[in-house]
What we know:
Two copies of one chain form a homodimer.
Chain A: H1 3-16, E1 21-25, H2 45-50, E2 59-62, E3 68-72, H3 77-83, H4 89-95, E4 100-103, H5 107-116, E5 121-122, H6 129-139, H7 143-148, H8 152-163, H9 167-188, H10 197-210, E6 220-222, E7 242-247, E8 259-264, H11 271-290, H12 297-314, H13 322-328, E9 385-388, E10 391-393, H14 396-404, H15 414-418, E11 425-427, E12 430-434, E13 439-441, H16 450-456
Parallel strand pairs in A: 1-5, 3-4
Antiparallel strand pairs in A: 1-2, 2-3, 6-7, 7-8, 9-12, 10-11, 12-13
Helix pairs in contact in A: 1-8, 9-10, 11-12, 12-13
Amino acid sequence: MDTQTYIARRKALRSTVKGGAILLLGQQETSRNYLANPYPFRQDSHFLYYVGTDLPDLAALILPDGEEILFGAPEDPDDLVWHGPHPVLGDHAGAAGMAQHRDFSGLAEQLVSLAASSVDIHYLPPYRPDRTVRLAELLGRSLDEVTASPSAELVRAIVAQRSIKSDAEVAQIEDALAVSYDMYQAAYAVVGPGRRESEVAGAMQGVALAKDRAQSFLPIVSVRGEVLHNNTYGNVMQAGDLLLVDSGTESPHYYASDITRTLPVSGTFEPRQRGVYQAVLDSQLAAIAAAKPGVTNKALHLIAARTMASGLKEMGIMKGDVDAAVAAGAHALFYVHGLGHMMGVDVHDMEDLGDAVGYPEGEPRSEQFGLAFLRLAKPLEAGFVITVEPGIYFVPALIERWKAESTHADFINYEEAAKFIGFGGVRIEDDILITPTGARILGKPIPKTIQEVETALGH
Amino acid sequence: MDTQTYIARRKALRSTVKGGAILLLGQQETSRNYLANPYPFRQDSHFLYYVGTDLPDLAALILPDGEEILFGAPEDPDDLVWHGPHPVLGDHAGAAGMAQHRDFSGLAEQLVSLAASSVDIHYLPPYRPDRTVRLAELLGRSLDEVTASPSAELVRAIVAQRSIKSDAEVAQIEDALAVSYDMYQAAYAVVGPGRRESEVAGAMQGVALAKDRAQSFLPIVSVRGEVLHNNTYGNVMQAGDLLLVDSGTESPHYYASDITRTLPVSGTFEPRQRGVYQAVLDSQLAAIAAAKPGVTNKALHLIAARTMASGLKEMGIMKGDVDAAVAAGAHALFYVHGLGHMMGVDVHDMEDLGDAVGYPEGEPRSEQFGLAFLRLAKPLEAGFVITVEPGIYFVPALIERWKAESTHADFINYEEAAKFIGFGGVRIEDDILITPTGARILGKPIPKTIQEVETALGH
Lengths: 459, 459
């Protein structure tokens, strides 16, 4: 992104937020097991979007009159010794198109003085304890006060702005997707009976790291695809297993990719795996085909759900009227999560800003199991980039619980469902751009149909 | 480690710390760019050492009478749905040999009630803001109060205990070193002109990740070896460059390895590279040869310094009396850091506990440049595992500064030193165990002599 992009983004933000000062807090280093042993640094995403500088311990302040100041550590002569030649704070301010830069140690005083002049300080909800502590220090408030008073107006303005991706942003996401493509190519060579999940994870991450790319989230690489929260890689793959791989990486400007594929460990799908896989694929394609501006993502979610329920009915796992089953939420025994989420500088874009990202004001989330987990429900707009990632899972604990309570027994054939305990799960995920007339799957196609996947695995 | 090991470790700790309750706080998840996007979880090292459980949001409380309680989240029925079958809190307490387990939400009340009964609560200095915040919540104190009052007695007891490694701990470190060996083997295949530093980093990390091993710290993989604080991997290697690789991984029980090698990008060292490399290697071998119980690590540091100064004198870069030069600190223009550090569950073992780890009580760090950065100065004991990692660097900013100030001009030939600007740096690091009579280099030998390195690189 060039300097003009950051200037324009901040100008648009400043013009939307009426009055007050806007404080954008950069990220601090995060220690692992002691202070000087940090995790790989990741800048705060809002800071990346509006300033772009990828360094710890910065803050940007935008005053009511539009004056902009980048706060950071002043240069220490020893920095040159330990860090070699590098751009200094003024250079970073210049690259971001900010006229002024100042010593971070003066920020608290400036904020307190603004507050004393009855200028509101707009800041975002802190999503890490170190951010809460830093805001408390800067604003001279308690931790509880900081947590209680983020700016809803700033949240709304940023959600509106960051939701619509420019061509340059889409290009960044496609850049990350090109690396994802290579990561899957590396995976195909390692998937096979007798090998550990971690070998696939290592091969994929090695590809990204060789290109100096971070993961956009902790990947899932598991033969236990039905375990939704699963970031362990210790299982040994067996013939007959399905390996679910959900991973993503970041572009040079830290935009995310997020791709899921489900691969048969033996190289070919078994008959009932084909059935479940095809039902998920049909759902994903149906949702993508229906995606366009004005359609809600909730509607897409339900299209996917109905397609899936039809497939499950054909397999004898569900029964009765498909529309009624989906309206009741019966499909959610198998399709336990939402269709997808917004994507951008965050893989769940702006998730730190809460449901303002995915839900229209005044529309709370559904309380129905399954639908309650849908992160994005509102009408789609041209420029949104979202994931489409339906899945079918056979979760033993859930099947047993619903069966014991006869939940939706009109729509579920529990005898048949029980036979799928141990099957695992299937999810298929792509990243799509909402265009003025429909949607476009981003990135070079990664093998997805049954035949494509089997061919990729050498069969 | 088996249950008896953890029981014995806690019993020893309890018997050393007289009176009071001992609170060991586990690690919390660490968010990256929003709450639900964490970094890979790493348990607190003290918690690993005394309890072993590798889960977030735990705490262990050891009461004055030896009663032990593991605090954590009680099981939620939904955990089975989202996380699959897994051990519950009682299982973890059992594995750690702790008789009791309780809901974490009751810990604060118990601590406040202990404090009301005038029972001291011993806790360690918090090294992350989230730990400070959690301790403040648990103890009902302010952040400043928490920071001000960690237990010096607990720190001393833990330093004494964790400094001496058992055979099982040494085996863990050697297990990590076996992976380091494989990582270097992978590196040799990727080092070469025209390739990016990140390709080497990715190849090495891919090996570790395939074995499900985390890095013990952010690796250095750089043709700018003279930049000491350097975790970027963007340079393209050129023939004639030296690539400095400092990396480590973790064993199944999270013990660290830490190995540095310096590799000629072309596959063979140039004549002056051979000179500098051999001076560093001679220093490392001299320090290792002198290592045994009773000798201070500061003495080893100075042995390495004198060996290096001799080598630099032979090359015409230093001059005058070697002992006098080292006593004055002139060598530190090139050998800018300390010889090494304690190793264990942390790569800089117990660095969160401060200089109590490396310095005898009442002996402050030297203020001399170079020696001031020595992390471990005290007498070695059998059972210590330490790194030995001397290096020679040509840091342009430092050479120019000292030259301008004529610093140690009696001992440094600045005209000759200036010719090495652009040379980079050489460091060679192994991990050694102090035995009753000397020292043993741990792990399968990783190519280190000039000939071994060139052979490994295919020459």
